[in-house]
Amino acid sequence: MKDTRVSVVEVGPRDGLQNEANTVSTEDKVAFVDRLAHAGCQRIEVSSFVAPKWIPQLADAEEVFAAIDRRQGVEYSALIPNVRGMERALLCGIDAAHVFLSASETHNRKNVNKTIAETLSALRPVVELAHAEQLPVRGYVSTAFGCPYEGRVAEEQVVGVVTSLVDLGVDEISLGDTIGVAVPTQITGLLAALAGVLPVDRISLHLHDTRGTAMANVLAGLQAGVTCFDGSLGGLGGCPYAPGASGNLATDDLLYLLSRMGYETCIDEDKLAETAAWLEAVVQKPLPSHARSIARRASGRA
Amino acid sequence: MKDTRVSVVEVGPRDGLQNEANTVSTEDKVAFVDRLAHAGCQRIEVSSFVAPKWIPQLADAEEVFAAIDRRQGVEYSALIPNVRGMERALLCGIDAAHVFLSASETHNRKNVNKTIAETLSALRPVVELAHAEQLPVRGYVSTAFGCPYEGRVAEEQVVGVVTSLVDLGVDEISLGDTIGVAVPTQITGLLAALAGVLPVDRISLHLHDTRGTAMANVLAGLQAGVTCFDGSLGGLGGCPYAPGASGNLATDDLLYLLSRMGYETCIDEDKLAETAAWLEAVVQKPLPSHARSIARRASGRA
After folding, report:
1. Predicted-complex ipTM score
2. Under a CB-based contact definition with an 8 Å cutoff, are residues B81 and B123 in contact?
3. Residues linked to residue B100 through DSSP beta bridges, in sequence order
4. Residues 203-222 of A with CB under 8 A from B
5. In a domain, B244, yes or no
6. Which of A25, A217, A263, A298 has the most crowded Cβ, counting Cβ within 10 A?
7. pLDDT tens column, A192-241
8. Chain B residue with the nearest C-alpha to that of A259
9. A281 lies in a domain?
10. Three-class SS of residue A146?
11. How many CB atoms lie within 10 A of CB A239?
């Protein structure tokens, strides 16, 4: 029988808020994370330990971690750029470390001012610190399906980067369609190319719906055995008036597809929808998910 | 080798404009159809011969048909509700007749004030008139995956309606996800249930992206052998500020997926994009497709 369990990594509190122009209060961030956990989210990326000068929106990572109500069975993770960030994160008691680099040299250089090789070297002690504390490490591979500067990224290039991360000891890979260009054949092809590198149950898809292909890519992933997808509640981080133009795949829309296809996620759709409505009030603007559009229309606030 | 040809029925001039609040001039409608044909669209639903009192936006069907520049190889079709509409359409020289009914009784009654059985009886002479003129007939089955009044529609119910249409002599069926609730498993299931009723190359999918699942449903359709999809350029007919909340799947977004997956449609993407930009100027509001959002952002008018 097909395994129908699918897990979702909720990246709204980090990836979503990082891309919001308005800063959200620490209190609201804590409430956001706690509401997600209450709705059944089992993997929540809480914040980032990137230097505050680079991402001021998430400068309160320590305060957020100190105030959240830790639930049993929930993994509270954070984005970690380097050893300094890892040291801060360990003091906060994170449950998992998320590191990142790009599959394309140009994007990686623009993002972290290093070559891919230099980034891999810099990540080694980060992974070692995490593993010394028995923490799992997730590695984001951005621009895995296309780069804003280089265009299409060759499969071999991505396979090389993933292999290097696995060699470093990274436990799980999240393949990012950072600019939302991927189509299902690319998903299927890259997953096949990675078959010898790490098991598919250690690969997640981090999709953007820029060109309307994210959900088709989810389907291609499911068919290839992927059991973990990243989502941002309400599509937080995207622009509501440019549908899907920059945001992550919306967790609420993802849940609609998964639950009606018979997959189990442990997430309560009603509670998640309540949290999305609450979140919209917090950020004081319409969120771009289809689910929120429907809810606003139903309440006469389309 | 897999057949990579996919056809698209462009329903923007009929289904799209019918759902636009602002009336578009006859001249612009003619230009719209001619631009679509020029871009390579081979199947265009030009207008509707429903009584003008019901759909005043399309009251100029005769004028539009008289003025379009007919291209060799392009099928210019129209929506036909009854014998009176068919007689008007025949005088216009349509290439194909599109008839319609719903899979659910309540939706059908609200739409045409008849039971499904009464609708089928009323369609018989329409199909006969079309066939007497050697015109192919396409039958739309609305609410094939869900009804706003009855909820989920049983597969057997849809199979029964499709079977009745095939028995009437309808040549092709377009399964409509009218309220955009379908998920890929429903697409796969219904197509399998219809396997004994008519060949898959005579089944089209008419999808709405209300919940973000349209493109995943396209993928499920392609995998099941469907080679024809309906689209509305730019997502015309939907609301740009409620992404996908009511509109048809956008042809420009569909083309992105199809072409990058290696399917051939004969449609020139650049010319289609130009037409979408032109159309946006005509209707004087942003169109909801992802492609238009990207184009507006690129030109600084997000």
Report:
1. 0.95
2. no
3. B140
4. 209-216, 218-220
5. yes
6. A217
7. 999 999 999 999 999 999 999 999 999 999 999 999 999 999 999 876 55
8. B183
9. yes
10. coil
11. 19
